[in-house]
Amino acid sequence: MPDLTPRPADPTPSRRRRRIGPILVLVAVVGFGGWVLTNLRTAVDYYCNVDEVGVRDGCDADRRLRLQGTVAEGSVVASTTRTEFDIEFDGVSVAVRYAGEPGGIFNECIPVVVHGVFDSDTELFLGDRVEVKHSDEYVSVNDERLTAAEESACSPSA
Amino acid sequence: MTTPTTPRSTGTRATRVIGIAAIVMSAWLTLFGLVLSPADVAQGDAVRIMYVHVPSVWLAYLAFIVTAICSVWVLVARGRVPGVDRVAGASAEIGVVFMAVTLVSGMLWGRITWGVYWQWDARLTTTALLFITYIGYLAVRGLDGSPEQRARRSAVVGVVAVAEIPLVHWSVRLWRSLHQEATVLDTDLDVDIDGLMLFTLFVGVIAFTLWFVWFVLHRARVMALAALVEERSLDEALAERAAEVPAGGQN
Known about the structure:
The complex is a heterodimer of chains A (about 160) and B (about 250). Chain A is α+β, with helices and mostly antiparallel strands.
């Protein structure tokens, strides 16, 4: 017959040690989260605004950028192979040449994010992808506020 | 040995009422979402995806919060509340489904409005992370161990994982994102949405909430039945094993 008498339990860690473990994990998680929020801000930010090129950390003109600005009214010129337009933010404007036809709800007076690089000779921003960044406002096509909304549509937003 | 009576259905009068109400509200949502609510001045008819996308993500958040509350209960009771543990698991399962609906509807909406299905910006990445975390939670629930061990182990994950929700919600404020900021759940209380669109969104939230309750109740009861079947199988196996032993002899 096998010995079925209960074996002595494994020594359990002291109550103090058991309490310290979760607290250390919590402190590490909170600390790491705080570090991410404060130090990785520019790395996690999806785009640079037009007025930040060469000014903000990570928005250098000689690197590949995602540039956000509102498509300037009357600036869109489309041909069969490319679309040219200006994007502006806080009074600063950049001319964009995009190889193709932008998708989404691309239009004048709508914020967009253009992926690309600056041409050092022409200072044109050569885009290879355009994403439309629509706002958090929802206005009915039949709304009486439509006129007012259209009038303010070209106001740049953050 | 007495065995408990097996219920013939997971439905009750209450779940039938909830189910009928969910169907009626879904019909209302379809009517308002596709016919009565107006198109958006910038997005056109694409805005109608919002009536599925936004309620589904809110219900996913609610589901994960329910899981977290039940998980705290399980931890306090040291895993000896199997009914609460089942609600935690059922809620997480339904939450994962709602989160999948959120991701798919968001991708379709993004393709129409942004021009791309997906980008690794702060909101989309944290949402994907939340989805994967709760798939991980469901995987932890399936690990070996006694029911109490499994309940306590998954409860720890359920409590920790819910901390991701504020990060997902505030990601569009903390970082610059392709995704727009919140329209309704906004702290500045400036709700910039047409009245009928907001009402349709409200109908969607009610409909999805009713579905959530209905699914969680049924799923938790199915889990209870599965536990009963497992228990009976064990009893039957023990009885069969005992019958193999010759009377008065040793095996």
